[in-house]
Amino acid sequence: MLVLAIAFIFLLLVLIIIIYRYYLQKARIAEERNKMEREQLDFYTQVSHELRTPLTLIEGPLSQLAETKDLQQAGAEASGLFAIIQRNTHQLTQLINKMLNVQATGSIDDMTASMQESIPLESHTKTAETEQPHAEDLSTVLIVDDNADIRAYLRTILQDRYQVNEAADGQQGLAIANEIVPDLIVSDVMMPVMNGLEFCQRVKSGTATSHIPVILLTARALSQHQIEGYESGADAYITKPFSADVLLARIGNLLKSRLVLKNLFGVENSKDHEKASNTPQTIIKEDAFLLKFRDYIEKNLSDSDLSVETIGAELGLSRVQLYRKMKALTGQSPVELLRTARLRIRN
To answer: Residues 6 or more apart from 240 whose CB is under 8 A from it?
Structure first.
């Protein structure tokens, strides 16, 4: 009996060891599979980014030039578009040749190294100021992209309709967004220093910038990438190559939606309140800030020292940030809103 018991215990230990090694090996295989899938996804994303960006900068300018009736009158703009096409055609040709020269047995690292060798890095220069003067009543659009040609192309599309500012990465874009508080932001995702997803999250979490619509314009075209974009707070997700008309229509719709908020703040009769109650929740999310602003004014109207600086300090904004945010949300400056509130109390 003792021998049988020892033999049984030994067999049980052997069985436990076998099962343990089986599950350990299974977990290792699953981990290697997940790692391989992540590498494949990263590789696909990088290839997609490097291919779609030149394609965008070839297809887009060509379409724009095709709509230009007189190229001689277009002048410098047409020359700039032709230069963009020439650079990116050469870049795309180099990239394709590098990819075709990689042997079938080559690793992902070899392919990635070849791609990086064929594609020069962009110079990341900050161009926050507009090149041409625009009317003050034009909406302001901030372009955030590390590719100088993409920024130049987007400027040619937008400059006739909007006041355009530029930044070369998310960190520069965030600083400019807090400084000028634009009406809308168009941003790439794959950028140095701070990528577009983090940039979008920072914009949406900032008191001065939370109301600004953000369009992610990127080569990351998988559904998983789009989910990440919307989870970061993006209002729209457009993949490259893109149609200029689609981009303009999306920008126009997002800017029009801000007009609803401007009407929400000053409503006084029941019909307007009923109209406000039917407004989509995505549009009303900034109403909490407006209510906080209004409540603070109403509680402190009797204070003769009440000023825009005092209100801004209470809300955590500078005078300029408060002015631009309230102008974007309500169409009125803080001084005008304060004056209206005082007149309403007196009447």
So the answer is: 52, 53, 55, 56, 217, 218, 219, 221
Going by C-beta distance under 8 Å and a sequence separation of 6 or more, which residues neighbour residue 210? 203, 204, 286, 289
Placement of tokens 């049988």 in the chain: 4
Show the tokens assigned to 199. Answer: 């940039």
* Sheet of strand 140-144, all strands in order from the earlier edge strand to the far edge: 163-167, 140-144, 184-187, 214-218, 236-239
Question: What is the β-pairing status of strands 184-187 and 236-239?
Answer: unpaired
Four-point Cα dihedral 129, 210, 339, 343, nearest 10: 150
The string of DSSP codes covering 135-146 is -TTSPEEEEE-S
Q: What is the pTM of this model?
A: 0.64
Q: Please state, in angstroms and as integers, the Cα–Cα distance from residue 196 to each residue in 174, 232, 331, following that order.
A: 10, 9, 29
pLDDT of residue 269: 35
Instruction: Spell out the residues 6+ positions from residue 115 whose beta carbon is closer than 8 angstroms to its own.
Output: 46, 47, 50, 95, 98, 99
The SS3 of residue 166 is: strand
Among 199, 200, 182, which residue's Cα sits nearest to residue 141? 182
Q: Is the peptide bond before 61 cis (omega within 30 degrees of 0)?
A: no
Query: Which tens digit of pLDDT belongs to each residue from 304-314?
Result: 778 888 888 88
